[in-house]
Structure formats: C-alpha cells, structure tokens
Amino acid sequence: MQAFQKINNIVGWAIFAIATLVYVLTVERTASFWDCGEFIACSYLLQVPHPPGAPFFLLVNRMFSFLAMGDVTQVAYWINISSALCSSFTILFLFWSIVMLGLKMYPKDAPIDAHKTWTLMASAAIGSLAYTFSDSFWFSAVEAEVYAMSSFFTAFVIWAALKWDRIEDARRENQWLILIAYTTGLSIGVHLLNLVTLPALALIYYYKKYPKPNIWGTFVSLLIGLFIVVLVMYGVIPGLPTLAGHFEIFFVNSLGLGFGSGVVFFLVLFLGALSAATYYSVLKQKELLNTALLSFIFILIGYTSYAIVLVRSQYNTPINENDPSDLIRFVSYLKREQYGDRPLLYGPIYTSEPTEMVQGAPIYRMVKEKGKYEIYSYKTSYKYDKNILLPRIYSDEHKALYEEMLNLREGQSPTMYHNLKFMFSHQLGHMYFRYFLWNFAGRAGDEEGSGWLAPWEAKKGKDVPED
Predict the structure, then answer these.
(1) What is the pLDDT of residues 368-392, one digit of tens each?
(2) CA–CA distance, 440 with 455 (Å, rounded to integer)
(3) Is the pTM of this model over 0.85?
(4) pLDDT tens by residue, 317-372
(5) N vs C: which end of the chain shows fewer Cβ within 10 Å?
(6) Per residue in 178-198, pLDDT tens?
C-alpha cells in the first residue's frame, strides 16, 4: 500500500503541475469582463463588493496583490494567478478523489498490484484532465472570479469526506469532520455553492456508519443533508445576524441603551449557550453531540470572515456597495435585498395584473443624532389576479421577448404549455445543457449565444449556426 500511495502522490502532483502550467500560461494579464474588475479593485484595498460579498476571497487575493511589489499595473495579473492556483489545486484534489472512488471497486483489505494501481492512475488522470481542459472550468481558472476558489473548496471538502470514509479510528474521524465543517465555514466567505456538497457528505456518512444501507435510509440521509443546507443558508448566514438585529433594536429603541448593546448581549447569550452545551456534551460523554456542536462552532469560526465587511464599510472605502456599516444594513446586504424576489414555485406571470399592495415588515436605519433606529420604509409585496405553478415567464419587462420566443401573437395569453416550453427550451436547454455540452461535446463559436457542436458536425466541418 505504501508503494501505491507514493505513486498516487507523484502522479497527482504531476497532474497538478500540468494544470498549473496551462492556467498560468493562459491567465488574463489584466481585468476581464463582468465582476472581475470589481473583485480586483475590492481585493486590492479590501473594499465592499456587491451583495452578499466574498470576504475570504478578498482576503486571499489581497495577499496575492502584494506579489505585484507595488506595481499597480500588475495587481490584476497576480490576483488572476490566485484563481489559476486555486483551479490547479481543484484538479489535484479531484484526481485523488477519483482514485479513492476507484478503490471502492476492490475489497478494503485487498492488495493493490501494479495492474490495479495504473488502472486507477489512468482513470483518475483522464477524469481530472478532462475537467482541466473543460470550457467552463478553464474559463473561470484564468480570471478573478469567485468560482475558481469555490471549486477548490468543493473539491477539498469532497476529498476530505472520502479520506474520512477510509479512516477507522473514531478520534481521527471526528477530527476530519471538524476540518470539513471549518472548511465549509470558510467557503461561505467565497460562494454559497459549496453548500451543495452537504447532501453528498450525508450519504457518505450514512454508507459508512450503516454497513447495510437501504433506500429508506438513503432518502432520510439526503433529507438530513438538505436540512443542514437550509439551516446554514437561512438559519446561520442571515439568521443569526437577523436575530442579533432584533436584540439591537429592542435594546436601543425600547431600553434606551447605546448602539451595539443589543449585539453584545446577543453574543454573550449565544456564546454562553454554545459553551454550556459543549460542556454538557463533554461531561456526559455524548460523543455525537460533542462532534456536532464542535462542527457547528467551526462553521461559525469560518463564517466570521464576514466581519471584514462590517469593519471595512466603517472606513467608507471608495467601493462600499450598500454601505453595510451597521448591523441592520449588514443583514440587508447578506439577504441580497437589493435584488428583489423572484417567484420560484408559485407566482404570477408577465400578463398577471397586480390587485393589491401588501405592506410588510418595517425597514430600520440608524439615526446617530437621535441615538436610535427609526423606521424609514416598509417592505412591500403584491397580490396578483393570476398565479401558476413554476412561473418561468414572470418578468413583465420581457413581454416582447417571450412572445417572440414562444411564437405568441401580440396580446395572446400564455398557457402552462408555453410556460413549460420556455423552461425546457430556454432555461434548461439554452442556459444549462448548452453550456454543459460546450464542455463535453463542442462549442460552435466564441461569440456569446453560440450553440453546442456535436462531434460528427465538427468532423464534417459543418457551419453550425448560433442559437
């Protein structure tokens, strides 16, 4: 097994070197389109980008900006190099993950001979290099976007879960679970995409702890994984600051105490409860409870990177989007309230007419002169005369586009058929499967909106029109 591990490490690092060489040679020399310029500027001076922010991403890139040695013309290049290295480390952990998945084809104690070794190395190399050169991943690997670092955290968490699966010692198992939790907490400061790994981790946990799995157990494990995603996404990320905000408003407005008093009280109460629960788990030797609590605590430790947003906004940096300098604004920043809401499961379509405006929760702002928080507006929502399930054609700003795409006459009312046609042809077909096939089939061109190219079309040299 030692010989296998040595070969595994050597080949893995060789694949890493190939990916690093490719990405460094093709990296953007300066800022590229969309959010990249904003992220580069915000990383360089630790500023506040668009909601919900990416504080840990900015911290790492701030360190890479030092490699410019004071030459501001090279800052963008070195921050782009950060994405290149994150991406090549993603390939490294993907390689090792494929190897560990391949090992599951053999009995755990079976000897790994040369044939098995090189079969596993070849399969992992093919899989990881296919991802290295895939269109979407290569594109994100050479620019200053959050997706490269997010992919790294995703790959690391999956690799760590597979490593945990092979560990037999209970103490080391718990240590790896806490590492996974801490990494998940850090990844919140990059992108929320990493949370989608949690249902997969729940399955890995179930299949290891229960040697005779069944469909019902698998289903329950997935539900638990989804519950943890919802808990972190809504209960931890915006939920804890929102609760602290309620304490803050009560202590300042109702009790007449100073700004920050409610936050301090909430922190003392919350940290005290966590400490008491952890002490209880140790005292009563509740190993599972203790591991769960420590994992939760380490998620919170990783999540504290968001304190940077509050701190830097206080300095009123040149880029200070939404000015989240106090807790109330910070909660709005985390919840992305500036983007509004979209109906996902049930709601209006573009021909629906509003029938009533409903006044919602009050919106507060800090008034330093008066020493309290005042209501300056209310959240509003609307009731409509027509609502449907899965409303995909909801935007009243794109009426003409919907009619053109769905071959509707002007003024013709769409039906559920048109709604589903748009979902399958545009949202799933054009906006997802087309991108997917760019990576693993072919791409018709470099223009935005280019269609995918089938292998036989490329071979015959056909001029494939853009979608």
Answers:
(1) 999 999 998 999 889 999 999 999 9
(2) 10
(3) yes
(4) 999 999 999 999 999 999 998 888 888 899 999 999 999 999 988 999 999 999 99
(5) N
(6) 999 999 999 999 999 889 999
How many other β-carbons are positioned within 10 Å of the β-carbon of residue 228?
21
Token reading at 252: 């300042």
Peptide bond into 107 cis (omega under 30): no
Query: Nearest CA to 308 among 43, 58, 55?
Result: 55
Domain ranges of the chain: 2-190, 239-314, 342-389, 399-460
Instruction: With CA atoms as reference, report the closest residue to 60 among 241, 191, 199, 238.
Output: 191
Residue 282 and residue 290 in contact, taking contact as beta carbons nearer than 8 Å: yes
Residue 213 burial by Cβ neighbours in a 10 Å radius (0-12, 13-18, 19+): middle
The label of the residue with tokens 């013309």 reads 73
Torsion of CA 427, 433, 435, 437, to 10 degrees: -160
Mean of all residue pLDDT scores within the chain: 92
Q: Which residues of 1-11 are buried (b: 16+ CB within 10 A; e: fewer)?
A: eeebeebbeeb
Quote the CA–CA distance of 127 and 246 in Å, as a whole number.
49
CA 452, 458, 460: angle at the middle one, nearest 5?
135
Query: 225: closest CA among 161, 136, 147, 321?
Result: 161
Up-side HSE of residue 111: CA atoms within 13 Å toward CB? Answer: 4
> At 255, which amino acid appears?
L
Taking the C-alpha atoms of residue 4 and residue 397, their distance in angstroms, rounded to an integer, is 60
CA-CA distance, 273 to 440, in Å (whole number)?
50
Tokens in use for 462?
């056909």
- What pLDDT, on a 0 to 100 scale, did the predictor assign at position 113? 87
151-155, 159-163, 357-361: which range is least confident on average? 357-361
Q: How confident is the model at residue 459 (pLDDT cuts 50, 70, 90)?
A: very low
For the chain, how big is the Rg over CA atoms in Å?
A: 26
Q: If DSSP codes are grouped into helix, strand and coil, which group holds residue 443?
A: strand
Q: How many H helices and E strands in the chain?
A: 19, 4
Read off the tokens for 250: 């009560």
Q: Are 449 and 467 in contact (CB under 8 A)?
A: yes
Report how far residue 116's alpha carbon sits from residue 203's, in angstroms, rounded to the nearest whole number.
Answer: 26
Tell me: the pLDDT tens digits for 73-126?
A: 999 999 999 999 999 999 999 999 999 999 999 887 788 888 899 999 999 999
Largest CA distance in the chain: 77
Residues sharing a CB contact under 8 Å with residue 467, sequence separation 6 or more, in sequence order: 430, 434, 449, 450, 451
